[in-house]
Structures are given as C-alpha cells and as structure tokens.
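Appendix C reproduces, verbatim, an entry submitted by the partner laboratory led by Prof. M.T., so that reviewers can inspect both the input and the predicted structure.
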Amino acid sequence: MASSARRISKLLTSSNQMRFALPRRSGSPSFSTAAAAEVHTEAPPPSEVLSGPRIFDLVKDYEDYRRNLYGGLTHKALLVDAVGTLVVPSQPMAQIYRQIGEKYGVEYSECEILNRYRWAYEQPWGRSRLRYVNDGRPFWQYIVSSSTGCSDSQYFEELYNYYTTEKAWHLCDPDAEKVFQALRKAGVKVAVVSNFDTRLRPLLKALKCDHWFDAVAVSAEVEAEKPNPMIFLKACEFLSVQPEDAVHVGDDRRNDIWGARDAGCDAWLWGSEVQSFKEVAQRIGVEV
C-alpha cells in the first residue's frame, strides 16, 4: 500500500506541476526543489497521463491511504494563508485610499488609484530582497505615494493604522472559528502562513481570532516570502510537524500552491479545490 501511495503522490505532483509550471525568467531567483526539477526531465508514460475522472480517483485513493496511515486523518497540520483566504478587506483598497486621502488633497479617481497601485506593486522592490521588513513602512510609503501622488506623512500614518483595525477587515468564512476548534480538538495543529508585515499579529488579535492558531509564520519575521518554501518550512518547524504531514490552503496559485508544494507540503487552492473551511476539515477527515 505504501508503494502505491508514493506512486499516486508522485503522479499527482508531476501532473500539477507540469500543468501549472511558471516559465523561469532570466536572472530571477528560483525556489524549486530537486523534486520539482525532475518534472522537466521525467514525464509520466502515456498510460498514466492524468485527466478528469482519473485524477479524482487518484486523489480519493491517496487521501484514503493517508487517513488509514494517520488514524482517520489525512494530515497532522493545516497551514492557512491570511489575506484572501482567512481575511479580506471590508472595502475596496482604492475606495479607502481615496476616502481617507480627500482631506490630504488626493485627487485621483478610484480607478486611477487602483491602476497606479497595481503598477507600483509589481515593480521590483530594490531596498531589500523582502517587501515586508519589520513593520513594512518604507514599502507601504512607496506604494501609497505611488498610488495616490500624495506623500503627506499624516495621510500615510492614518491609512497605515487603519489597516491594523477590525474595521478594515472581515473573516472570509463565518464558520472559521467553529472549524478550527474542531480541527484542534481532533489533534490537527493549525498555523497562519502569510506575506505580511508585523501588523498581522495585532490584526488577528483585533479580529479576535489570534487564539485559533497554534502558530503564526509572518514573512517579515521569518525573513522569507511566499513562494519561497522557507516560510512553509518555518511554519512546520513551529508546529513540530514534517512538511509532508501538513496541507496548506491559500488563494494564490503561485505563492500558496507552488510554494507549499516546493516545501514538501500538500496544498489546496482556496475558491477552487476547497470553498470553505468546513470542506477543508472534511477533506482532512474531521467532521464539523
């Protein structure tokens, strides 16, 4: 049975990475592992090309195997992305930048702010290999001034502090607390893994959900940003589990899915493979 499960895992990993592999840009850093590199040299034989029902059957077989291995559970730990999975902004970013900025002379429309924000966010951040260092202020000052054309320090501080409050965010899934309680009661450890600055911990506390988690891995603290597998490995270290015993759930295919798999974790895409934390728990083998 073990050899069959290894074969299934290899096929699923190979299939997913061949379907979704990013073209490597010249000069860009690579976080691929040796296992991921094998995808470029080893393709499954024609008889094992995966599609439709075949993928579903293999996933079911593999998860059944893991439940048998771990006493009814597929994984010993759940890693959860923050923004876009656990929490989302309560109002559109451009709307808030505009509303707060009006008294500081911001004249750009919400559409203009959004376009300028996207442009600025995609530019290489030259001051550090990380965008979020400690409280992330230099990076966010650059983003705010680039998005709005306003460099007023009072405007920046008001906007920056707003995003540390419960007013700025809400939970994606209203059943999250109940699900995380059930998972932890069943023995599954839970951690947040997020590209964020040091405001994340006070934000989770403001949302009254900080006690739901056994650990929090913040990129600004561990000095690694998704998709770098190091942040996932740190989360597993904090939980005292092996990467292969953890599954990560997030909404970004590159940062969350590929990054977690490069670290050796399983990964499920939020909004596609799983739609709610109750569904996540059920796949792990915990009824809520």
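The first helix runs from residue 2 to 20. Additional entries are available on request from the coordinating office.
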